[in-house]
Amino acid sequence: MNPKLEDYLVTRQVTKFKRLDYFALIALWLLVGVPALTFLLLPSTGGRPATFRSVSKNNLKQIGLATWGFHDEYNHFPVAPLNKKEHAPISWRTALLPYMEQTSLYKRYDFFTRWDSTANSSVVAASINEYRAPLAQVEGKLNGYGITTYEANSQVVRNDRLISKSDIPDGVSNTLMIGEINNAFPPWAEPDTQRNPAAGIGHGSRQFGGYNQSCCQFILVDGSVRCVSNNISLTTLQDLADPADGNVIPEF
Question: Does the keyword Ligase apply (predicted)?
Fold first, then answer.
């Protein structure tokens, strides 16, 4: 903005407020200022839960699309079998970078060294919005590493063997793939951090858990997002976690 014009606008604004009656200013503060300050002091998760859930849901959808993009190219889900013997282990989230519009980060990643090596320090320090729920109390970085608030089902995204769509006889619409976590957030580039949904939904360091009191959002293998109740029976949750137990899953 032109400095002279900016000074003019500021001067007009100050002059305008000088004309206001003292008591009118107090009334204006009570009407607008106090409620606004109260809103700002409220925990973010309490003030805007619907917005947070919506953004997190969209993040999960993007991760789900990336997972299927990976599957279409390699005919299996990530992660460890992608590595050649001379490569260091990588995170499933690192494997998905090219499908998350993060190709530049992926190209800078050195697959011949550990994820936390000096060679990868600038890459793993990146904070990727799609890997992190928009919560005020969740910092974008931890000890210099970009963190994540999403984790994969360890029974589908495995480190020991390939899993493809054909290895899920229970059905892709009946198997959990990736979900929200609300505790012990790992760096997105750290390998072998998957969790087992069969451990229950809660606040444990190895559990999945959402950001409200009612449910935790998961993406199923078919790409759909479901808000799974915190009160779901452990048996049903175990069946949803296992891609090949053959059990009939009730409505959830």
Answer: no
Is residue 19 a part of any domain in this protein? no
Question: DSSP secondary structure string, 163-193?
Answer: --GGG-TT-TTSSEEEEE--SSPPBTT-SS-
What pTM did the predictor assign?
0.78
pLDDT in tens, 20-39: 454 444 544 444 444 444 43
In a domain, 37, yes or no: no
For strand 215-220 and strand 145-146, is the pairing parallel, antiparallel, or unpaired? unpaired
Domain membership flag for residue 212:
yes
The DSSP bridge partners found for residue 146 are 141
Please list, in sequence order, all residues whose beta carbon lies within 8 angstroms of the beta carbon of residue 174, skipping any fewer than 6 positions away: 220, 239, 240, 249
Residue 82 confidence (pLDDT) above 90: no
CA–CA distance, 202 with 181 (Å, rounded to integer): 9
* Domain hosting residue 89, numbered range: 49-241
Task: Take residue 217 and report the two structure tokens written for it.
Answer: 């959002």
| CA distance readout (Å), 158 to 73, 90, 91, 194, 218 | 17, 12, 10, 8, 17
Residue 189 lies in a domain: yes
Q: Are the C-beta atoms of 149 and 133 separated by less than 8 Å?
A: yes
Give dist(CA 24, CA 33) in Å, integer.
Answer: 13
Domain count, the chain: 1
- Calpha distance 49→112 (Å, rounded): 41
